Amino acid sequence: METNQSKEAKYYEKLEETFSDFLKDLDSLIKIPSFLKEDNTKYPFGKDIQNALETMLQICKKLGMKTYIDPEGYYGYAEVGEGEKLVGVLGHLDVVPPGDLSKWDNPPFDPVVKDGKYYGRGSQDDKGPTLAAIYALKILLDCGFKLNYRVRFIFGTDEENLWRDMPKYVEKEEMPTVGFTPDSKFPLIYAEKGLLQCKLIAKNESSMEFKGGDAFNSVPSSILVEETKGLVEALEQLEYEYAEKDGKIEVLGKSVHAQVAETGINAINRYLHALSVSGIETKSGRFVVENLLGYDFAEPIFGQVKDEHSGELKFNVGKIEFTPENEILCIDMRIPVTYDKELIVKTLSEKAKEYGFEYFQHDYLKSIYTPLDSELVKTLMSAYQEVTGDLESQPIAGGGATYARAINNCVAFGYVLPNSPKTEHQPNEYIILDDMKVAMKIYMKAFEKFID
414 has which bridge partners? Predict the structure, then answer.
């Protein structure tokens, strides 16, 4: 009789044998620049995202799974196994734009392996982890593992923007009994803050026109603007980094995901500050200087907003645009799970009005909370602990917005290991290859534990 130890040895040997195939398939996905392009094609989010969806389904079909693509192009899925129970694994194939290409050591959609790391936009968020979960199950099946349930890998296409994909899935398809999304970090995310994105719009009474930032949910790493009188002197006085580029001034920052906005450097905020110091007053500048500079969590607006489960409210100015008519600030907030969204909106609206802004909601995803004693949390935590031997790391609350919100009884589970870097949304995004192998082992163990 085959022991658990001998089975694991067989699984891990197979993982090493097939890891090069995993990387080849990942290459084919990363090479597709699948960020939102509403390009007037028949596809809802652009041809590149559709191409990524079709490519992933081709990979799954090659690996022996049944596949389906939504005729409207909002989602697809691949399924294997038999039984009433349906385990859902939810991943997304859209990515955030690459931003300033000069900050990449290698082109973002030309993947490269160097020093044990695999670089490319989408490698960590979320093409790499999604494909890893697929390969984990495939390895089990190739080694004789018998499923008594169905596994459905569900692929979304609008996670980085307005989540117009998952409502279509929920409307049309069977709901998983239980599920996880490999789109965060280990050991497990049991609570996710509310995600609120909004625009603050005021009349533009300056003569300025410019725009900057790539996405609501990214701290902007730079903004390229026309040089105005006193701007360079103000930047130097404030000791803000800048560069001359194409006859313009590029104000520099550090990009991170909006869920950890306080760890980045917001180039938009710095530019508005420098404008103000140089003598050019704008409503956006006053709002930022008086409420955001020197504060990690926008305390002048909200006071302290924090709870024991999920920490502080996060606030990020991700994009800005000055048109001839309006000043527009695009803001991403992560609201602690125990706080009322309407109170946050009321507080921000009243504060914004003092500066001449009106509040407009862009998108909202409610917070989620999965009890720590739930069967799902206990099952996945045991899989993580048995593979890693890590009994110290505990389930955590996060500020990210993952597809765990899309269906019931679902949590975010990996791929990033404790103490490993999260590189999503940043230049030179990468995965650590050895970490990915560990993640695949954890996913194998999880699939084993879903057996009834």
Answer: none
Q: Is 329 helix (H, G, I), strand (E, B) or coil?
A: strand
Please name which of 290, 326, 287 lies closest in space to residue 202, comparing C-alpha atoms.
Answer: 326
CA 285 to each of CA 65, 161, 261, 277, 361: distance values in angstroms, whole numbers, following the listed order:
54, 26, 19, 10, 21
d(Cα 446, Cα 386) in Å, to the nearest integer? Answer: 10
Q: Is 304 exposed, middle or buried (0-12, 13-18, 19+ CB in 10 A)?
A: exposed
Q: Reply yes or no on whether the pLDDT at 3 is more than 80.
A: no
Contact 250, 271 (CB under 8 A): no
pLDDT value of position 2: 67
182 bridge partner residues: none
236-270: burial string, b at 16+ Cβ within 10 Å, e else: eeeebebeeeeeebbbbbbbbbbbbbeebbbbbbb
Q: Per-residue pLDDT tens for 159-204?
A: 999 899 999 999 999 999 999 999 999 999 999 999 999 999 999 9
Predicted confidence band of residue 91 (pLDDT cuts 50, 70, 90): very high
Tell me, which fold does domain 194-365 have in CATH?
A: Alpha-Beta Plaits (3.30.70)
Tell me the C-alpha to C-alpha distance, in Å, between residue 164 and each of 141, 150, 189, 244, 285.
33, 26, 23, 39, 33
Q: What are the structural domain ranges in the chain?
A: 4-192+368-449, 194-365
Adjacent-strand bridge partners of 242? 251
For the chain, how are helix, strand and coil distributed in percent, rounded to 5?
35, 25, 40
Please say if the pLDDT value at position 45 is more than 80: yes
Q: Which helix (H) or strand (E) is 203 found in, with range?
A: strand 194-203
**Which helix (H) or strand (E) covers residue 47, if one does?**
helix 47-62
Q: Which CATH number among 3.40.50.300, 3.90.1150.10, 1.10.3210.10, 3.40.630.10 corresponds to the domain 4-192+368-449?
A: 3.40.630.10
Report the C-alpha gap between 419 and 432 in whole angstroms: 12
Residue type, 97: P
Residue 367: burial class (beta carbons within 10 Å; 0-12, 13-18, 19+) = buried
Number of H-type helices and E-type strands within the chain: 11, 24
How far is Cα 132 from Cα 107, in angstroms, rounded to an integer? 23
Nearest-CA neighbor of 44 among 172, 154, 166?
Answer: 166
- Most confident of the following: 67-71, 213-217, 337-341, 406-410: 67-71
